[in-house]
DNA sequence: TCATGAACATCTTGTTCATGG
DNA sequence: CCATGAACAAGATGTTCATGA
């Protein structure tokens, strides 16, 4: 949550995934592995395939940031067996607002990274 | 030198610096710390400040890749003392061609990364 | 088997130290 | 001090293992 100055090179995968997970929680896309499936599908043609551990770590970050909380639910599957899955919601006391601030910060970094990459194209290919 | 499939998230800083260093050797920008100064200056407003260790590691990579070789030269400074500095040149047997192939590969990755970031902007801000 | 994690390993990068002008 | 490295530490991420339903 600390608004640290972006002092490094390109943004970290973790921040990128937290951004997507916030948006997917807004859109109620499901539990962790379902969101992972969607991301793997959507980025397949861009050669990026996130893994499950990083998804869980990102969600855990968002919980520790005070943005999301977990709700365990029983989910019936096709074999009439029940499995417990974890859904995420914005914490009622400022979670959504914190999420929007986080997204705004990441937007700044996305724009910064795009500038760096476009500069590299301009500087090195002529 | 292996043309490995870009399987990860965004590109590594190392590849980014190797790209710039190749271009700067083409343009004869000087020795390592001079090139570092230029990069630090040019990316200052984008919040990116590479450090000297990563520059040396990138140059070492390019030497190990068979693209560059080192030439030590004595450089007089203002105090009439002499210091040995290291300049880099393309190896005569295919070094330049290998450098151009490397640059072409990085270009592909730069474009891929820009697509990923622009997709994130489109997907998460509306 | 799927879903959720933790634990472990590795790879990348940043920081500090060493050497020689 | 500068220039070049090496060595070490820290961080980020990938891989594997554990647990329960």
TrEMBL record, chains A, B:
Keywords: DNA-binding, Plasmid. Signal peptide: none annotated. The keyword Acetylation does not apply. Pfam families: RTP. It comes from the Bacteria. GO terms for molecular function: DNA binding. InterPro entries: RTP, WH-like_DNA-bd_sf, WH_DNA-bd_sf. GO terms for biological process: DNA replication termination. Homodimer. This is Replication termination protein. It comes from Brevibacillus laterosporus. The lineage of its organism: Bacteria, Bacillati, Bacillota, Bacilli, Bacillales.
């Amino acid at each position: 949550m600390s608004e640290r100055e972006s002092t490094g090179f390109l943004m970290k995968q973790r921040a990128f995934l937290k951004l997507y997970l916030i948006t997917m929680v807004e859109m109620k896309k499901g539990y962790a592995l379902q969101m992972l499936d969607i991301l793997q599908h959507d980025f397949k043609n861009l050669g990026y395939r996130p893994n499950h551990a990083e998804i869980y770590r990102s969600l855990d970050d968002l919980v520790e940031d005070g943005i999301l909380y977990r709700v365990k639910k029983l989910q019936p599957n096709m074999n009439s067996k029940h499995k417990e899955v974890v859904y995420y919601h914005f914490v009622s006391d400022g979670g959504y607002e914190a999420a929007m601030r986080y997204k705004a910060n990441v937007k700044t970094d996305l724009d910064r990274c795009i500038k760096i990459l476009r500069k590299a194209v301009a500087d090195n290919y002529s």
